[in-house]
Please model this.
Amino acid sequence: MTKRNVIRLLNAAVFSCLVALPVASHAAAARPCEDALKEMRTAKASAKLTPDAKSKVDALEVKAVERCNADDDKRADAFLQEAMKLMGK
Model:
């Protein structure tokens, strides 16, 4: 392999990485908050919660809906994930 071929190969590898990274980060984006909200509400309906835990879950749900309506799915999903943890799900 000549020096020129090695340089071409390295350039191709670097270019591939630069193209693949944004695609990979997009693929790892948060799922739609509406889906997570449905899942959390289903779990909440069958969960046996103390009054304190229920109020915390309700507050997290309100925050999640607010973020979901603002198209901030990542933060909405984080609130819903926290609510799921409180419910032991």
Remarks:
- The chain has a mean pLDDT of 82.
